[in-house]
Amino acid sequence: MTDPASATTDHHPYPQRWLALAVIAVTVLMIVLDATIVNIALPAVSVDLDISEANQQWIVTAYTLTFGGFLLLGGRIADFWGRKRTYLVGAVGFALASALGGLATNEALLFAARALQGTFGALLGPASLALITVLFTDAAERAKAFAVYGAIAGGGSAVGLLLGGVLTEYADWRWCFWVNVPIAVLAVVAAWRIVPESRAPGETTYDVPGAVLVTVGLASLVYGFTKVAEAAQSGDGGSPWANGPALTFILVGAALVVAFVVVEFRVRNPLLPMRLVLDRNRGGAYLTATLVGAGLIGSFFFLSLYFQQVLGYTPVSAGFASLPVTAGVLVAAGTASQLVPRLGPKPLMVAGGVFAAGGLFTLSFLGLDTAFWQVALPGQVLLGLGLGFTFVPLSNLALVGVGEHDAGAASAVLQAVQQVGASIGTALLATFSVTAITNSLAERPPTQEDPTAALVAQVDGYTTAFTWGAGFLLVAALVSAVLVRASKDDLPTGAAVHAG
C-alpha cells in the first residue's frame, strides 16, 4: 500500500494531523458507543430472538471478553504490523461484524457477531490511540488531541444510551448494529488518504507465549467478574462471591496474568515492556484508570436503571436524561486541554477525581420521587466535569514520553486496565447494590398497604452503588496525588510522523 505520509523526521509535524484526528475520533466514538448502545436494546433483542434471561448477559459479555482479552496483543500488532494498517483492518472487521449482528436470526449468531466486534475493536482501539500519540508531539497540541479523546471516552457512553434508545424505540434494535457500518466505511475511505502510516522501529518479533498468557488471563478475569455480577443481580440469596465457577475463572486469570509478568521480564522482545508499567507516573496513570473504570460503571448502569425502572422513563427519555454527563465532559475536556500544558497533569487528575466522586455522591441522594433538576442534573454535570478533567491528563500522562516502538502497547494497557476496572466495578457495585436491596426488603417488605416498598428497596440499592462508586473515584484522586510526580516540564515530546 502506498502512503503519502510514511516518512518521519524530527522537525516538522504531519500537516494533516488535525484531519487525521477527526477521522480517528469517529471510530473511537464508534467503539465507545458500542459498549452502551446495545444495553438499552437488550429487552427488545431478547424478545425478538427468544434469548433467555440466563443467556442475555452474553450479548454484553461476548464483546467485553474478546475486547478485553485481545487488547494487549492488538496493541503490539499495531506497533509491529503498522498502526494505519491495523486501524483499517480493525475498522473493516468491526463494520462486517456489526452488519452480521444486525442480520442475526438466533442467539448463537448474535453472540458470535458480538465476539467478532470485540476482537476487531481490540485492534482498532490501540491503533487509534497510538496514531494520536505519534501524530501530535507538541505538548499543547497533544493536550488538545487528548481532549478530543477524553471527551469521547467520558461522554460517549451517555450518547450511546441516547442513540440506543432512539434507534430501539423509533426504528429497530438491529440499527444499533447497522449504524456502525456507514460510520466505519466513511472512516476507512478517509483514513486511507489522510492518516499516515507508522510502525515501531527496531526488532519486531512477536512474544507468542506472552500473548497467549495475557489474552487467556484477561479474558478469564473479565469473565469471572462478570459471573459474580450476574450472580449478584440474580438475587438468589447466596453470596455472589461464593460462586465456585466465577472464583475459579478469577483465580486462574490472576495466575495467568502473574505468569505473563514473569515471562515479560525474561523474553527479549516482550508484548508488554515492563518499563511502561514500572515508570512511577505511568503506573500511577494506569492505576487511576483502573479505579475510574470501576467507579464509572456505577453511574451509567445504575442511573439508567433508576430512570427506567423507578421513574418509568422510556428508553429515549432515559437517554436524554443521561446527556448532562456528556455536557460536563465536553466543557471540562476543552478546559483541561488548555490547562495541562500550563499546570501539568497531576492537579487536574486530582481535581477531576474529586469532582467525579462528588457527582456520584450527589446521586446517592436520589429518592423515589426526587425531581430530575434537584439531584440527577447537578450530580451528572459534576460527574461529567470530573471525568473530563481526569481523562485528558490521564491519557496524556499514560502515553506521553512513550517511545515510538511502544506507542501501541502503552495505548493497549490504558484501555485494558479500564476494561478490567469496569468488569471488577460491575461485580463489586452489583454486589453492594443487591445486598442493600435485600436488607431494605427485610426491614420493609412490600404489602398491599405499602406497594412502594419494592421500589424504595431498588432506590436504596442504586444509591448504595453510587456511594461506593464515589469511594472508588476518591481513591483514584488519592492515587494521582501520591504516585504522580510529573510537572508540565516533564511532558516530553517524541518523533513526529509527517509527509515525506
UniProtKB/TrEMBL annotation:
Signal peptide: none annotated. The chain crosses the membrane at residues 18-45, 57-74, 86-104, 116-136, 148-171, 177-195, 207-226, 246-265, 286-307, 313-336, 348-368, 380-399, 420-442, 462-484. Residues 20-488 form the Major facilitator superfamily (MFS) profile domain. Keywords: Cell membrane, Membrane, Transmembrane, Transmembrane helix, Transport. It comes from the Bacteria. It is found in: Cell membrane. One of its GO terms (molecular function) is transmembrane transporter activity. Pfam families: MFS_1. One of its GO terms (cellular component) is plasma membrane. Gene3D superfamilies: MFS general substrate transporter like domains (1.20.1250.20), Multidrug resistance protein D (1.20.1720.10). It is a multi-pass membrane protein. SUPFAM superfamilies: MFS general substrate transporter. Its main location: membrane. This is Drug resistance transporter, EmrB/QacA subfamily. The lineage of its organism: Bacteria, Bacillati, Actinomycetota, Actinomycetes, Geodermatophilales.
